[in-house]
Amino acid sequence: xxxxxxxxxxxxxxxxxxxxxxxxxxxxxxxxxxxxxxxxxxxxxxxxxxxxxxxxxxxxxxxxxxxxxxxxxxxxxxxxxxxxxxxxxxxxxxxxxxxxxxxxxxxxxxxxxxxxxxxxxxxxxxxxxxxxxxxxxxxxxxxxxxxxxxxxxxxxxxxxxxxxxxxxxxxxxxxxxxxxxxxxxxxxxxxxxxxxxxxxxxxxxxx
Length: 207
Ligand code: Z5A
Hints:
Blueprint: E1 5-10, H1 16-29, E2 34-38, H2 44-54, H3 63-87, E3 91-95, H4 98-108, H5 113-124, E4 131-136, H6 139-146, H7 159-175, E5 179-183, H8 188-205
Parallel strand pairs: 1-3, 1-4, 2-3, 4-5
Helix pairs in contact: 1-8, 2-3, 3-5, 4-7
Bound molecules: ligand Z5A.
Ligand Z5A binds at residues 10, 12-18, 39-40, 66, 70, 95-96, 100-101, 104-105, 145-146, 154-155, 184, 187-188, 191.
């Protein structure tokens, strides 16, 4: 049986990394065989593309360039990591996937959604996440959570940009049944308990 593909999405500081650890613990408890990975990244070349994508450059980086970079990384990641694992029955847990491209490059950078949809079909063909946790947090709260960190090129964008990212995610979440929206402004224990509950139901339905 094909493995299941779970993704985590949200604005920066919404707690993806933190919740991912709890998600993995729950899968271990249930004896689910899985790998943890991230986008952009997950392979040697895709990690190099991630570095280039997040670095600060003197020249202007267009939204379309970002789209092409993330899909080049995604092709490598799908071919070398995600597909082979799913095919051998291993579940894949991924920190961000194509929903991030729609939110960051589509909604916030203004790249035509049709272009992203075409690349999505071309690169992914029939592969989409089975379950997506969206950690929803207003940008002003995410700012205070990551205050003091050294910011990369994307993190250096302003509040208006992250407001658009959030709206993009909310719009997509409403249109796809695979989404599970978690209010990430609550205390961590509550967010984790909610995530765990939804995940346990999913594991039961898919084992
Ligand atoms: N990107 C893109 O543009 N297009 C694409 O297609 C893809 C990605 C795939 C890298 O993503 C960048 O790539 C990202 C979008 C772009 N850029 N931005 N900006 P990333 O996921 O690697 O980086 P990130 O979003 O910056 O992740 P992060 O900063 O590591 O945030 P996080 O993982 O969501 O948060 P965290 O580290 O778990 O938590 C942040 C802090 O909050 C930490 O101190 C926690 O202890 C605390 N925390 C967590 N939950 C709570 C609660 N509930 N209450 C209080 N405090 C909490």
